Amino acid sequence: MQATVATFDPATCAGTVLLDDGTRVEFSGAAFAASGLRRLRLGRRVRLERGADGTVAALAMVTMPGHA
């Protein structure tokens, strides 16, 4: 599932994303840490990886196929 970064707190590494239907979804600092990312920019497209309980377990950058 893809979303757009809406908020990001560098102090806690937590924030929110907006799904394409406008639904706001929170992610924790632990989900950010699991992503291996070092920072997030507002408006950046990300892919959400959900845990068994439905919460965001990790984030991944969305890349375009064939582009470096």
Report on this structure:
The protein is mainly β and about 70 residues long. The chain has a domain at about 1-35. The chain has 1 helix and 5 strands; from the N terminus they run E-E-E-H-E-E. The chain has a 5-stranded antiparallel β-sheet with strand order 3-2-1-4-5. A hairpin with a 4-residue loop joins strand 2 and strand 3. The chain is globular, with a radius of gyration of 11 Å. It starts with a strand and ends in a 7-residue tail after the last strand.
Describe the SSE topology.
Layout lengths: L1 E8 L4 E6 L4 E4 L1 H7 L9 E6 L5 E6 L7
Antiparallel strand pairs: 1-2, 1-4, 2-3, 4-5
Helix content: 10-25%
What's the shape?
globular
Query: Given the helix and strand composition, which structural class is it?
Result: mainly beta
Assess the beta-strand content as a share of residues: 35-45%
Distance between the termini: 22 Å
| Radius of gyration using CA atoms only | 11 Å
DSSP summary, beta strand count: 5
How many helix segments? Answer: 1
Average of the residue pLDDT scores? 90
List the secondary-structure elements in sequence, H or E.
Answer: EEEHEE
What summary fits the major beta sheet? 5 strands, antiparallel
Low-confidence blocks of residues: none
- Strand order, main sheet: write it out: 3-2-1-4-5
